[in-house]
């Protein structure tokens, strides 16, 4: 008769563990300021300096992840990858703020990361005011067409520099649904990278960009 409460407690514990495993949110608040965050590695697609990724304090967000190196090499894509999780299908989001950059002011969210030259990427540009979804294959970046054949270079959207925004992509097999600040923009279909991969963030050229609240919900 006394076993039932124990069984119930174990069941609740298993549900809690499943929920934690299914959803991960990283806000950098427990990371040390001035150094790279724990459980992340950095890499570079393209040429130029590799990027400087450190944790900084932001007045609105608390601790944030910042890419601080402003090397203006054109085909330069510094990235920072979360190493503790590999997923195929997920609801992914990250907050970002572009701080500076004369050539570019961008923020990117990447998924199904295999290595520094192979992954999917969604990026927001505060100079062009658009959101574009790319695949990076063998180090070559290619903008993917919107579902329905509307065009091959994303969609215009207001991305104000110096303000916090939220990028989100829902990844379901070969279908990627793109959002900015809670508003759906478009769908993309592609099967180049069909296996599970890592998640991370990304910048371009001389962009100095802050990131926070990287969220991964397994589908």
Q: Sheet bearing the most strands, described?
A: 8 strands, antiparallel
Query: How many runs of DSSP E, i.e. beta strands?
Result: 16
Class by alpha and beta content: mainly beta
**How many discrete structural domains?**
1
What is the helix tally?
1
Strand content: over 45%
Radius of gyration (Å):
18 Å
Along the chain, the helix and strand elements come as HEEEEEEEEEEEEEEEE
Low-confidence stretches: 12-20
Q: What percent of the residues sit in helical stretches (DSSP H or I)?
A: under 10%
Q: So, CATH architecture? A: Sandwich
Mean pLDDT: 92
Determine the CATH topology. Jelly Rolls
Give the CATH superfamily: Exo-inulinase, domain 1
C-alpha termini separation: 38 Å
CATH class: Mainly Beta
Shape: globular
Top keywords for this entry?
Jelly Rolls; 8-stranded antiparallel beta sheet; 9% helix; 53% strand; 219 residues; 1 helix
How does this structure look, described?
By secondary structure, this protein is mainly beta. It has one domain (25-218): Jelly Rolls. Helix content is 9%, strand content 53%. It has 1 helix and 16 strands. It has one helix at residues 3-22, and strands at residues 23-26, 40-46, 53-58, 62-67, 76-87, 90-100, 106-115, 118-125, 130-137, 140-143, 155-156, 165-172, 175-180, 183-189, 197-202, 208-218. Strands 1, 3, 4, 6, 12, 13, 14 and 16 form an 8-stranded antiparallel beta sheet that branches. Strands 2, 5, 7, 8, 9, 10, 11 and 15 form an 8-stranded antiparallel beta sheet that branches. It is globular. The model is unreliable at 12-20 (pLDDT under 50).
